[in-house]
Amino acid sequence: MFSREHMNYEPVDLPDRMEFSDEQMLSEASAFYDRMRKRHTVREYTDRPVSRKVIEDCILAAGTAPSGANHQPWHFVAIADPEHKKQIRLAAEEEERRFYEGGAGDEWLKALEPIGTNDSKPHLEIAPWLIVVFAQRWGHFDDGTRFKNYYVPESVGIATGFLIAALHHAGLVALTHTPNPMKFLNGLLGRPDSEKPVMIIAAGHPAPDAKVPQVAKIKKPLSEILTVID
Predict the structure, then answer these.
(1) Phi and psi torsions of 70, nearest 5°
(2) Residue 29: CA atoms inside 13 Å, Cβ hemisphere, count?
(3) Phi and psi at residue 47, to the nearest 5°
(4) CB-count exposure of residue 44 (10 Å: 0-12, 13-18, 19+)
(5) Cis peptide before 66 (omega within 30 of 0)
(6) What are the CA-CA distances from residue 22 to residues 27, 94, 230 (Å)?
C-alpha cells in the first residue's frame, strides 16, 4: 500500500548487478533460449501435487516485473481447493460452449482447428494449481483515497510472462485460459471491483500421455521476428 507521506524520489545504489564477460553473456543468453524453447503449452495434467512454496516463489518472481510508475498493478490468486477449481471449470465451460457454438465467429474457430481445443476443460480441475491473474485498474493510498494505475495491461502482461517463465524454470507446465467474460471470478474469489480478471493459468505436471499440437512446435524464425538497425 502506498503512503502519501513517502512520494519523493530517493536514489540508491544499484543493489544487484551481474557482471559477465562477452563470452559469458553469449553463453547465458544461449542457455536461457535453450531452456525456454522447451516450454510447451499443455492441456493434459496429472494430479501430482505441487508444493505451495514452489507456486509462491514463482509468483514472487512475477512480482519483480517492471510496471508503470512502479505501481505493480497485479494480484494473483493461487487455487488448490478442489471445490473452487470445480466451480471455475463449470463457469468457464459454460462460457466456452457459447464461444464454440458461434460466439467466436467462423474465422476465429477456423484458426483454432489446428490447436484441437473445444469447450471441455478438465485441466481446470485436474491441475494441482490454478493461478488467476487480476489487473488492478486503481489502487488506494494508506488513507483510503484512490489513485490511478498506469500502463496496466502492459505491466500485467509482462508480469504474467515472468510467471510463465518461472513455472517452466521450476519444471512445471502451464496453460493460459481466458474465458470471456470472466467477471464471475471476482465474486468467487473475493476480489474487489477495482480488479479485472485477465487470465487463468493451470500449472502442474504433464500427464504421462500428454500431447501437444504439431502446429505449436512451429515458431517464427528470427528473420521474421527481429529487425536490427545498427
Answers:
(1) 55, 30
(2) 7
(3) -90, 15
(4) middle
(5) no
(6) 9, 53, 18
Phi first, then psi, for residue 204 (nearest 5°) are 170, -150
This prediction has a pTM of: 0.93
CA 68-78-158 angle, to 5 degrees, is 25
- Give the three cell numbers for residue 66: 517492471
- The cell for 80 is 488448490
3-state secondary structure of 99: helix
The letter for the amino acid at 69 is: A
To which residue does cell 498493478 refer? Answer: 73
Residues 19-68: tens digit of each pLDDT: 999 999 999 999 999 999 999 999 999 999 999 999 999 999 999 999 99
pLDDT in tens, 106-160: 887 888 888 888 889 999 999 999 999 999 999 888 888 899 999 999 999 999 9
What ranges in the chain are assigned the alpha helix state H? 22-36, 52-62, 82-98, 106-112, 123-126, 152-169, 184-189, 222-225
Q: Which residues contact 209 (CB under 8 A, 6 or more apart)?
A: 44
Pairing of strands 195-204, 129-136: antiparallel
